[in-house]
Amino acid sequence: MQRVVVGSDHVGFPLKEEVKRYLTSLGVDVTDAGTDSNEVPVDYPDYAQKVAWEVVQGNFDSGIVICGTGIGVSMAANKVPGARAALCHDTFTVHQGRAHNDANILALGAWIVSPQRVTGILDEWLKTSFEMGRHVKRVARLNQTIIHPADASEFFKYPSQKFGVSISIKPTSFGPVLFAGRWETGLKALAAKGISCVELSIRHPEDIQTDRLKALLAESGIKVSAIATGQSYFQDGLYLAASQVEKQGQTVERLKSIIDLAASLDAMVILGSVRGGLEGSCSEKQSQRASAVKAISTCVQYAVDCGVTPLLEPINRFETNFINSLAQGLELLDEIGDPRFKLLADTFHMNLEEADISSSLLKANSRIGYIHLADSNRQAPGCGHLDFSAVFNALHTIGYVGPITAEVLPLPDDEVALDNIGSFFARVGRSFDSKTN
């Protein structure tokens, strides 16, 4: 079932009601972002951009925005990074916008498109898909903000409230986390640096007092961006690809409990190492994979039902043989079939698996929902040889606005590693000393 969000100003309200009625008759899941009547004048940018943000964040498959001519709402929607709003008045422009431009928002003019004609336009919108091929590179450029050469120093600036660091609630055998077992100290250290996001690596929700955690998060102003689940594999031997039905079931139940915690924290959930690996003969691996995909699908459905974004993290071949590259991750996302299931792109793993990190990011485009930063040696960015300017260039091109979290080894120790992370983030374009100066 396709999920579509619609919005309009007061002029577009009557056509919006017809659009909702027709889409619902087709079995489309329709959400109305407003406005609620045609009697009170409202500003069309508010509703167009509300729809656009919902779409680019992956909450809906596409959006529809309506004003008198459609011009204003299309301009407003396209101010949102990652939005590709196409102003269409007939089936031909709809087809071209979807097939060639990968339009994710349909802009309509209520003074131009009649209720009788809009049904054909909507039919074309729903059935037409992106043709890929030669259009991929061009669409990637549509997401790029053009910067005047004089402002080149601003190119790599990124919202500081999106930067985070991965820490562990308990001591763990999993290496690339900071302040393992010292999470309260870790939160205070992050706050002192002005870092406003934290990724929590958790074995089991019972390992932490949720009320205490929420109190410290509120006190420090830090938000949990995601919960990492790999410790269930490393410490308890639970994994989704387990051939034993009982162990696989225990893994699903563990992940559901972590998803419940994530829902209470408004955080995402990462399905990375907890996938485990495939064993045995080729036929045994195929059977094991099919079973694992069903288990992953169960977790994804549970997560989205809880309002939690599930993330698939491809991991390098030296750690697993089950989803190593972004391309393999995209295949699994297609297999699961829920647009709210997103990729987590980790630069350490990508350095080992991708022929070209930037190209892989560009191809994954809006299906990336989260970024892990670590250098070639899994230390803080800048401590190895990865070209992070190319990484940020690609993220800028695709209009990525999600969290970026450093998941690194605590070398030489937690505090120095955090200093190195803060220095790197500052070079990207946001100083984290502003809260303490």
Descriptive report:
- The protein has 437 residues and is α/β, with parallel strands linked by helices.
- The chain has 2 domains: 140 residues, Sugar-phosphate isomerase, RpiB/LacA/LacB (Ribose 5-phosphate Isomerase B, Chain: A); 276 residues, TIM Barrel, CATH 3.20.20.
- 43% of the residues lie in helices and 14% in strands.
- The strands form 2 sheets. Strands 6-7-8-9-10-11-12-13 form an 8-stranded parallel beta barrel, surrounded by 6 helices. A 5-stranded parallel beta sheet has the order 2-1-3-5-4, with helices on both faces.
- The longest helix has 24 residues.
- The chain starts with a strand and ends in a 9-residue tail after the last helix.
- The C terminus is likely disordered.
Keywords:
single chain; 437 residues; alpha/beta; Ribose 5-phosphate Isomerase B, Chain: A; TIM Barrel; 2 domains; eight-stranded parallel beta barrel; five-stranded parallel β-sheet; 16 helices; 43% helix; 14% strand; disordered C terminus
Q: What share of the residues lie within helices?
A: 40-55%
β-sheet strand percentage:
5-15%
Query: Largest sheet at a glance?
Result: 8 strands, parallel, barrel
Output the strand order for the largest sheet: 6-7-8-9-10-11-12-13
Gap from first CA to last CA: 51 Å
C-alpha Rg, in Å? Answer: 23 Å
- Number of helix segments? 16
- The CATH architecture classification of the largest domain is Alpha-Beta Barrel
What's the CATH class label of the largest domain? Alpha Beta
DSSP, total strands: 13
Q: Point out poorly predicted stretches.
A: 146-156, 430-437
CATH topology annotation of the largest domain: TIM Barrel
Count of discrete domains: 2
